Q: What sequence folds into this?
């Protein structure tokens, strides 16, 4: 618990983080109040005449790694809260309260179910259950390998401690993935808006006859944009659900660490360890491949003559035959997940071409 407490100390106030806790882009944490104090000290020129401080915009350096943090118009209130750390702080404080000396209430040692007058005092290694001496002498475990209860207790408690550390690290990585997914959603939105803007600028030069085509082609972009966003939101939801389940598992594991009775502890840790190992595995959740947010295949380069506008339509051509045109791919980018890929064996693309306009 001492090592956990060290991880929960704010580098500014040197106390346990006070909520709300904010996470910086460099992944270090600060109390929001301390972050605001550092921001004010780094940006004294933002102070108003009345002495109050404007907290919108500006920048400061992380006190832990000196990474420069650039704030948006919301100031320190635009920094994301680290709910995972806040939950760990709550559980730590509860654990610290429960571990304080209290009127001693001696907990009764569990008794053997088979020999009701015998206390559970040994551990059957073969069957992985605590038991009593009589069960070893002439009972169900007489042919089993046994070990002192305290030896197994300390061994499994150390194992659970390691698993808790592994689970905390896994949760931090999962939270980082969620942040990256949110950034990818923003990038997809920006790229989609950028490409639609390019298409609209080109269509403005084609006047009224191109308005219908403009609507059709921007709809193509919006369709793929929403498809990608739906996929990313679905991934974010799955990672969030995974994080929520492992956070609950972490709470259960920390509570189990407070169990002082060895037999009770050993009865509950075996399935808990198995659940923790399963909880650290995220291989069943898709990962966004590099370049998934790219929407550069929506490009516009129009060469046209007005007399052929009524004949303009989308055509499917081989890549080798393509002129400088507006490409609207019917399939997702090559880095997209398998469930979004479509067969493209003949190497074709949907092409918006104005080649007819060159005819006299």
A:
């Amino acid at each position: 618990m001492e090592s956990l407490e060290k991880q929960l100390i704010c580098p500014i106030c040197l106390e346990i983080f006070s909520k709300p806790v904010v996470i910086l882009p460099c992944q270090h944490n600060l109390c929001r109040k301390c972050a605001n104090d550092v921001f004010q000290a780094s940006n004294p020129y933002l102070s108003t005449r009345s002495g109050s401080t404007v907290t919108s915009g500006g920048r400061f350096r992380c006190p832990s790694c000196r990474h420069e943090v650039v704030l948006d118009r919301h100031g320190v209130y635009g920094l994301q809260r680290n709910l995972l750390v806040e939950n760990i702080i709550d559980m730590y404080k509860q654990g610290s309260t429960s571990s304080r000396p209290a009127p001693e209430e001696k907990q009764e040692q569990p008794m053997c179910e088979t020999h009701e007058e015998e206390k559970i005092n040994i551990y059957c290694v073969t069957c992985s259950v605590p038991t009593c001496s009589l069960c070893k002498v002439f009972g169900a475990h007489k042919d089993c390998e046994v070990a002192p209860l305290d030896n197994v207790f300390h061994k499994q408690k150390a194992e659970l401690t390691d698993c808790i550390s592994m689970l905390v690290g896994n949760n931090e990585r999962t939270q980082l993935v969620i942040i990256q997914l949110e950034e990818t959603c923003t990038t997809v939105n920006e790229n989609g808006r950028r490409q639609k803007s390019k298409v609209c600028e080109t269509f403005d030069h084609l006047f009224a006859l191109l308005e219908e085509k403009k609507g059709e082609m921007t709809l193509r972009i919006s369709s793929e944009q929403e498809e990608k966003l739906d996929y990313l939101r679905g991934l974010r939801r799955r990672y969030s659900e995974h994080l929520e389940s492992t956070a609950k598992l972490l709470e259960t594991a920390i509570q189990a660490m407070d169990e002082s009775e060895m037999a009770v502890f050993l009865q509950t840790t075996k399935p808990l360890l198995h659940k923790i190992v399963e909880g650290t595995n995220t291989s069943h959740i898709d990962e966004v491949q590099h370049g998934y947010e790219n929407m550069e295949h929506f490009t516009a380069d129009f060469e046209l003559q007005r007399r052929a506008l009524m004949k303009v339509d989308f055509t499917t051509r081989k890549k080798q035959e393509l002129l400088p045109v507006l490409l609207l791919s019917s399939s997702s980018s090559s880095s997209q997940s398998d469930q979004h890929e479509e067969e493209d064996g003949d190497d074709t693309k949907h092409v918006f071409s104005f080649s007819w306009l060159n005819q006299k």
